[in-house]
Structures are given as structure tokens and as C-alpha cells.
Design goal:
The protein contains 10 helices and 9 strands. It is of the alpha/beta class and 283 residues long. Helix 2 packs parallel to helix 10 and helix 7 packs parallel to helix 9.
């Protein structure tokens, strides 16, 4: 059951719209959660399409809001942007026992954990696909039939896997520097074995490359990857996504950007093009 009790904890005027922040009690995650939402000026006169942004490791709901410069482009195209946190948080929420950044708090990986102690709170897939959209659709002037999704790194993985599994729910998907195949990288080995157990077949439902191979519907897809990204070779595995899309004949625009790294400077450079890409799909 979705909680309707949301409390505003931040508000800023931005490009004629409003950048807002809220907290609410999540029934799915069994803890209090925060999210940010940008409402463009067009939302004052009626429902607007909505873009969900999923951030990466160590981030919360504010990194994209403060660093990407997306509000100007969202205002231009009349699109709301919803930014959830990247994991459950709070007292009693399990964390990496060694305090590492790549598992536990800030590292929900947008999966539904099945293993102890993670399963009690780490149900980020259901939070992003069900609970949060129901809350957003009920509380804000957005058009639930016109939704798209995007993200960065761990969030790029989340955006791709969620969209590929729910092509009826989204008009388009884009990603910056996504973890393309958790089945084939150290981050995936660590996190998925802890959250989901040792059966690698179970992991496939959260692997973008595997989901591309299985896809029967094709969404518009845009991926930007910096060639100077220090995570590219070991963790991101963009070449596996390129190969899978070609073999499955899944049309994707995957752009390798010379000299760009993994940072928000990269995101800020191309976020305008990503929002324009989504605006075309959401029209």
C-alpha cells in the first residue's frame, strides 16, 4: 500500500519552475525515503510528461539536481524530473560490513534483494517501478502515460534494466556511463551475490546485456560513454552492450565520447541532448 503522507523539506525556484524535495515513509523499503522533483513552469497549467533519473554509487537524490544543470532543459521542454535516492537508509538498514561505497547504503543497484540481511529493505526495483510512480502520479501534475527513464553508472544500469523489463511503462530510456553487464564485472559479482545469492541465472533479470538479448519490444535508447572513463574497461563493459544490441538487432544510439570521464562534468555536457531525446519520445 502506497503512503500518501509526504512532507516537503526543500523548495527552490529554478528557470520559472520549482525544484522541490520531499520525504515519505516507504512501505516497500520499510524506511523513510527522500526524493527530489523538478516541476517545469508548464506544470502550473496542466499535467506534464515525467522523466525518472536514477543516480549512481554514493549518490542521493540531490547530486543530479545540483550538478547536472538539467532544470533549464526540462523547463524548455516542459518535462518534470523525478530523482529518487539510490538506496534505503536509516537506523537498522543493512550496510556493507566493511563500509565500502559499492554495496549497502548509496548502492541499492535497483534490484529486489532476496538474501538476508538485505531483503528487509533493499527492494529498490519495486520502489522505482511501483511505489514511487504511484506516489508521484497521485501527488503531482504529471502525465503517467508519458514517462521516460534515465540514469548514470549504477543508475544507468537501473534505467536500462527497468526500461527493458517494462517497455510498456516508458517511452524512452537513456544512460550515461551505465554498468552494462553486472554479470561480467567486479561490482556485479560483489553486489548481486550478496543481494540475490549465488545463482547467476537469477542475476540475468538485472543484466542489461542479457535483457537486450531477450527483448521483444524496442524502445528508443540513447547511451553516452566517455572514452576517458576510468571505470570503462573493468566495470562498465560498454562493448558488451554494443555487441548484444547488434546481434539482437535492437536499434540503440550508443555514443563513445572522446576525452570525457565518469563525472558530472560529462553529464552536464550532454544532459540537454538527453532531455531533447526524451522530449521527442514523450511528445
Amino acid at each position: 500500500m502506497v503512503s500518501k503522507s509526504i512532507e516537503q523539506i526543500g523548495a527552490n525556484q529554478s528557470f520559472g519552475g520549482q525544484q522541490l524535495r520531499y520525504k515519505h515513509q516507504s512501505a516497500v523499503l520499510n524506511c523513510e525515503m527522500t526524493f527530489s522533483i523538478y516541476l517545469p513552469p508548464q506544470a502550473k497549467t496542466g499535467p506534464v510528461p515525467v522523466l525518472y533519473w536514477l543516480s549512481g554509487l554514493t549518490c542521493n537524490d540531490e547530486n543530479f539536481v545540483q550538478k547536472a544543470g538539467a532544470q533549464q532543459h526540462a523547463a524548455e521542454h516542459g518535462i518534470a524530473i523525478v530523482c529518487p535516492d539510490t538506496s534505503p537508509r536509516g537506523d537498522g538498514v543493512a550496510d556493507d560490513p566493511e563500509g565500502a561505497y559499492d554495496m549497502g547504503l548509496g548502492a541499492g543497484f535497483y534490484v529486489n534483494a532476496t538474501q538476508k540481511p538485505w531483503a528487509e529493505h533493499y527492494q529498490m526495483y519495486s520502489y522505482i517501478t511501483d511505489e514511487l510512480p504511484a506516489l508521484i502520479n497521485g501527488e503531482f501534475p504529471v502525465d503517467s502515460q508519458r514517462a521516460s527513464i534515465s540514469g548514470h553508472s549504477m543508475g544507468g544500469h537501473g534505467a536500462l534494466t527497468i526500461a527493458l523489463k517494462n517497455p510498456d511503462r516508458f517511452k524512452s530510456v537513456s544512460a550515461f556511463s551505465p554498468i552494462c553487464s553486472p554479470l561480467n564485472c567486479p561490482w556485479g559479482d560483489k553486489v548481486l551475490s550478496n543481494y540475490l545469492g549465488d545463482d547467476r541465472q537469477v542475476w540475468e533479470q538485472y543484466d542489461g546485456v542479457e535483457l537486450v538479448k531477450q527483448a521483444t519490444e524496442h524502445l528508443p535508447v540513447l547511451v553516452d560513454q566517455g572514452e576517458a572513463d576510468n571505470f570503462l574497461v573493468e566495470q562498465l563493459k560498454t562493448e558488451l552492450l554494443i555487441d548484444a544490441a547488434q546481434q539482437a538487432q535492437y536499434p540503440m544510439q550508443i555514443r563513445m565520447q572522446p576525452d570525457y570521464d565518469h563525472s558530472y562534468f560529462f553529464i552536464a555536457t550532454f544532459i540537454g541532448e538527453h532531455i531533447a531525446f526524451h522530449a521527442r519520445a514523450l511528445a
